[in-house]
Amino acid sequence: MLPAKNFSPQQVAGITSFPVGLLGGIATYAYGESLLHAFVVFIALIIVSYISVFVMLQRFIYRKIKLIYKLIYQTKASKREEFYYKNILPPKSIEEVSVDVEQWAIQHKEEIEILKKNESFRKEFLLNLSHELKTPIFAIQGYVDTLMSGALDNPEVNKKFLNNASKNIDRLVNLLDDLDEITRLESGEQLLYRQNFIIQDLIKEVCESLSIKAEEKKIKCFIKKGCELPLTVFADKEKIRQVLINLIDNAIKYGKQNGIIEGSAYKIDGKKILVEISDDGYGIMEEHLPRIFERFYRTDSARARKAGGSGLGLSIAKHIIEAHDETIHVRSKTDVGTTFGFTLPSAKS
Prior knowledge:
Blueprint lengths: L8 H22 L4 H39 L5 H9 L6 H55 L9 H30 L6 E5 H11 L1 H6 L3 E4 L8 E5 H17 L6 E8 L4 E8 L21 H7 L5 H11 L4 E6 L3 E9 L4
Parallel strand pairs: 2-4
Antiparallel strand pairs: 1-3, 4-5, 5-7, 6-7
Helix pairs in contact: 1-2, 4-5, 5-10, 6-8, 8-10
């Protein structure tokens, strides 16, 4: 029995020409011609039918299939590819070609969806960047215009307005510094200077550096009980300091009055250390968690902008951790608190 699939043009031509020749031979014999004459007609019709069908298939069907494959695999073919088209593609069945085309279409559809998402993120990023830049610039412009309009001679307001303008300039400089930092991280230009250090000591240092800000809300920052045993990691100490500053600073900004911030570290296997920064603050709603590490993404725009910052802190933290070939994650529940965790490689001897 002939296979149902993978017919070559030669097989299709042979299968088609045989019944044509057979019918012609039988008809010739039935009209009173000799058996030899009928056999000659039979052979002649087979040859003519075979050549006709084969040429038609080659020219009108498989040439089209080759063109489809050239479109799928893009561009002009090399000599090796031409050999592939001539000698390998023709045996493919129409069903197989259909499957290949469908797979190609699915792949391109996925690529188009990714491009659409990237375009959406790009537009959102530019919109957020524009807003972040305009806010301090317009504030500075307002203070300067007011001073130029006569307030400069008023000692009661000129110093206040100049201080406010200075704060907005600092905010603008910080934003540009963060943008420069994240650009270098994304491009891979930022070099890492890895060394062995005790992660709990670095957490304590960061807590002490932010103690004045924490004391304003009477928030306590400490190492979690049971995690005091020193664990040594192998990483860029200053970059990890930046990650911890961003996480702990956020915990203070969005933490509750008289709250707590706990730093913890766990040895999860012989090669990695899990570091976590937890708070008992207001938490983050579940729908925001998948996008929390995006640039300029804010869970509460009004409260976040009032709290200050560039909106790039978590994104920078994510890029720093990923530059170490590690991962960062977040767990949160509203009115319970938030925990940011990331892994780092254990110390190297």
